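Quick one, T. Sequence first:
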Amino acid sequence: MAEAEFWFCVKHHRVETGDEMCPARDRLGPYPSRAEAERALETAEARNEAWDNDPAWNDDLDES
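Structure tokens:
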């Protein structure tokens, strides 16, 4: 039996799983648990912050 996957719909701000889900363009995931899917926006914000401050990927540095 396959383990359940959980998705977070950014359009409706809810966790989804199973056959009735919003289109992929509106979802974040998959996540291994409902709790992790519920924190999807927090996880995305933390990752974006880390990437924005990663000196290896900072395109805004003035190299003149």
